[in-house]
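Researcher: Here's the sequence for the chain we discussed earlier.
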Amino acid sequence: MSAVVAVDVGGTLTKAALVDADHRVLLARRTPTPTGPRVAEAVIDTAAALVGELRSASRDAPVAAVGAVVPGIVDVGRGVAVWSENLLWRDVPVRDRLAERCGLPVALGHDVAAGGLAEQRLGAARGHEDAVFVPIGTGLSAALLLGGRAHTAGGFAGEMGHVDVGHGGPCACGATGCLEAIASAAAIARRYAERTGRPTREAREVADLLVRGDPDARRVWDEAVDALALGLSWISAVLAPRVIVVGGGLARSGELLLAPLRERLEARLTFHRRPDVVPAALGDEAGCLGAALLARELLERP
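Model: Thanks. This is the structure I predict for it:
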């Protein structure tokens, strides 16, 4: 059986994996995501180099296709990365450029949607046709999985991090009150530093301080969980998912996050379907596994 190469372009790291037909990761690589004025060309160069390296290393199974996932707004039909706040690119024909460089068919997708697809088919949402995947890290977004398929609306669906939850603070997107600006892992670290004047780089530092009884950490954490519960209550009311899978760096805090989140979400729901709120199962492999699924789907098309 053939293998596929999956590439997950993140704001900080670009990950790649050689994945077999049974969805097993045979080899994996990671490298810093390029930055700078020619970021589009540099990212495609990096992705092509990773594909070439893994393709050369695949001795037992020929590589038949590539799946690549990127952040931001993605037009899957045209294979175009429309816009990304993190990568600062616009209207980049990633699919065609990468296919030309690699000499292989390429499927392009959105990183969060692909991660959600992987969690639904292989991970924590397996067996549920209606699910939502919410990775919380530098940013905050959602993959909407309805009737067993990802709902993307041309790449614009799932921007949960940019709904106004009422805190009034600014967001990098230009709006105010955005969920991402109070409940992402980056926001938690930033808001604790602003509140205390103490340099804080990561949300896990705030989580550690919370466990030790720091009142400022408690305040920042509670405000983040309250805002996240509000956002998820809207998702629950509108889409009625059976399960909400929470992933990303913040999910590594486990029940410190999930227990109060379940409680506060429950308090906001009345007659609505109550979703199970569970941790992601695939960790930081979700994006690559989702990209591999997209590559497999491409190969299976008539």
